[in-house]
Design goal:
Helix content: over 70%
Protein name: Phosphatidic acid phosphatase type 2/haloperoxidase domain-containing protein
Order of helices and strands: HHHHHHH
Largest sheet: none
Structural class: mainly alpha
Membrane topology: Multi-pass membrane protein
GO molecular function, one term: hydrolase activity
Number of domains: 1
GO cellular component, one term: plasma membrane
Shape: globular
InterPro entries: PAP2/HPO, PAP2/HPO_sf
Distance between the termini: 46 Å
Strand content: under 5%
């Protein structure tokens, strides 16, 4: 129980600090990147650019990224949010009006972060340069989800874990399936 109480206290403290200490220019940048990531537009656009410009390697990276993103979305939004039903951070903690524009669904886990981490982690092994290029907006999305009051830091951390796990699963599932068939 002490662990959960400590986690709640850390979530509150970090959420309030991140939401309150963002400069106006940074706040606008975070919001713009998050808007691009809404409904996975950013990651689908990145996949299209990789497939168009990257040849065979770009198509493989794009396919892996989109597959991992789809599995992460199913796991985070389709399963975990239905089971957790955690309320969003209290509006009183967020000192700006962006808190009014947040979803009504469960806060746990962050589906945006799960998608961003899954896409980036799945692209990285096939095309490291593209993975590095995706890592920056993925981090920005994760920070923005806390800054906007949509998620607690623990929601974002759980979303990142789900994203990394689904990227690993997508990358290794063909080998695991072949091993089972042998």
């Amino acid at each position: 129980m002490r662990l959960l109480a400590g986690l709640r206290k850390a979530d509150r403290c970090l959420t309030q600090k991140i939401a309150a200490r963002t400069a106006p220019g940074v706040h606008k940048t975070l919001s713009a990147v998050e808007e691009c990531a809404e409904t996975t537009k950013l990651w689908c656009s990145a996949a299209a650019a990789m497939a168009w410009a990257g040849g065979r390697r770009g198509r493989r990276a794009a396919a892996a990224g989109l597959a991992a993103l789809a599995v992460a979305q199913l796991a985070s939004n389709g399963l975990c949010k239905q089971l957790a039903d955690r309320p969003r951070p209290p509006k009183e903690w967020i000192p700006h009006d962006e808190v009014e524009d947040r979803p009504a669904s469960s806060s746990f886990p962050s589906g945006h972060t799960a998608a961003a981490a899954a896409f980036t982690a799945a692209v990285w092994p096939t095309w490291p340069v593209a993975g590095i290029a995706c890592a920056l907006p993925a981090c920005v999305v994760a920070i923005e989800r806390v800054q906007s009051g949509a998620h607690y830091p623990s929601d974002v951390a759980a979303g990142a874990v789900i994203g990394l796990a689904t990227a690993w699963l997508v990358r290794h599932s063909p080998r695991l399936a072949l091993r089972q068939l042998s």
